[in-house]
Amino acid sequence: MVRFVSILSLFCCTVAFAAAHDGMDTDMDTDMDMDMDMDMDMDMGAGADVVEVSPVASIVPVPHEPKHLHGVPILQLSSLTPAERLYWESYNTTTYLTTQAGNRPALRYHAFTLLLIAFVLYPVSLALSAARSKWYLPLLFVNLCVCSSSVMALSVFKNTFPEGDWYPHNIYGTTSGLLLVLMLVHFFAAVVSVPVLSKGSKNDYRSVDVIPLDDLESTPVMVNSARGSLSPSSNRDTLFSLSSSTNNNGNDGNDGNDGNDDDDDSNHNTLRDEDDNGDEMASIEAPPLSLQDIPVFRILCASTKYQALAARLSNVATVVSHMLTYPLFLYIFVDLIVGFAVGNLLGKGIRVFNLLAHWIKGGVFFTLGVVSLARYCGFGAKYGWAWNRICFTLQLSQERSSNLLFRFAPTGTFTMEFIESFLIFFYGSTNIFLEHLAGSGGAWTAKDLQHVSIAFMFIGTGLCGLLTEYKLNNWRFEHAHKHSQADVVAATPGFSPNPFPAFTIFWTGILMSQHAQTSQFSTTIHTQWGYLLSYGSFFRLLTFLILFLVPNTNSTASKPLTELITSFCLLCGGLVFMESTDQSIEAMEYRGFTPMFTFNLSVGFVSLLMAWEMILFIWKDRLIKTRKTSL
């Protein structure tokens, strides 16, 4: 046995040595052949006129090879599959905005005037309305004229476009016409309603149900008479007028003083000349606007026929004017967005559902960011929505029902957290079946169920938010009413420690940031806006923590610095959300843009928009101060 193993080992070694020897011979032969080839090449090159250069000599050394950077179209990539290359080679970039067909000056004029109305003219008119400026109605008339010319320019372009209808059954023509009608109705309603607002003198406001108190610890209690102070609902309320504190123009303190007969009567008729931040009269409500103050409308005001018409329609006109102010502002942007989609041929066919999903949800967060910044600037201070404490006293128990805002209001009042929770619950309820519209009639896919689960989250967190508001009702009242001897029937510290609205935004951002897409480009953009929404909700919770530890003790708008960051995150996150549609992603990929392209543009645009919004609020306060001091 041992001999057999020895013989086998010797045989294996012999075979291995033979194989190694053959390999060495082969390598030597190969080397010799290479040397001979090199000698032949040198001999041939010696007699040739052109010397062949090695490809290595033409390579330029670089630290990194460019892959998909700025300005590198997707068709220049070598990593495309045959199916991908076939799709991108047939990709068409021609739209209404890029073609040269039709009346181009008319289209450019339409786009420019619509942007002018949305970002300049109408917002400025809101500020003038809040300040009761005599230029409000003239500027509203300018809005109407510019809108009319814009719609006419759109009609001219449509009639001169020779290529037919590239976007069949689009609704942009209808939305533009409806915008003109709403502008017209709003203007005439505003004109007719102005005399109603100026029927009484500045110190004669009737039908007042509720009196806000500026500072219960330092200001004497206002009178509870039928001729008390201006109620939050007795003046025209706009996005900007809600930022003003309420006048306290009580007439005679002897009519009723809530047990404070020792207070001097003059305290009931004075306006605070300076708020806690040192801005003189910045938070004072402007006096009512009179039609005689407007030079253009003096002749109209003197007409007996107009006075008779205004007497019959003034109440209806006032309601219509109030109801159209905010919706019209939003509808202008709806029309602008629809025009952008139609002009770029976005959302055609089945892709309309992806477009609507991103633009509706992104638009909600963008609008929330605008409102958040407005609250920082003082929006809703009359109702305690500007992070400020507010308290209300009831004049007569039977008069509470005459004010719809406070008829069903709890003792802790309706807070902005309550409104946000209700809107979250309502949106979730309506969104259950919307996620299946793209596959209507077919089976529910995993993607449908994934999106519907987010709707369930909205329903659950919205309902939890409403229940939390109910549980915190007494807390809000006691937290705002403590250390006060006034007969207060409703009070709020300016916030409700309700985490569910911020919680909803946080988890929406987290879930969407983990939502894998068909391309890495799209996944990165979803991650961007998902994280932005999450960051915004985090700073909103810090706002609650700051005000919980250091509560605001007066009715002036508080200025939590965290709200500025929250507003930026919501605005930028909502905008990037709207930009993350499939067709927008494809347009950027085709041109070679990176995910940072849309992110950088969004950050710059949002920064400018925030600055413009803050400028409008500051200007509005200055207008109020100037008009008040001139009286």
Automatic annotation (TrEMBL):
Pfam families: DUF2427, Ytp1. It comes from the Eukaryota. Residues 332-621 form the Protein YTP1-like C-terminal domain. Keywords: Membrane, Signal, Transmembrane, Transmembrane helix. Residues 1-20 form the signal peptide. Residues 243-254 have a biased composition (Low complexity). Residues 90-193 form the DUF2427 domain. Residues 224-284 are annotated as: Disordered. Residues 226-242 have a biased composition (Polar residues). This is YCR061W. The chain crosses the membrane at residues 109-128, 135-157, 177-197, 328-347, 359-383, 404-429, 449-467, 488-509, 529-549, 561-578, 598-619. InterPro entries: DUF2427, YTP1_C. It comes from Saccharomyces arboricola (strain H-6 / AS 2.3317 / CBS 10644).
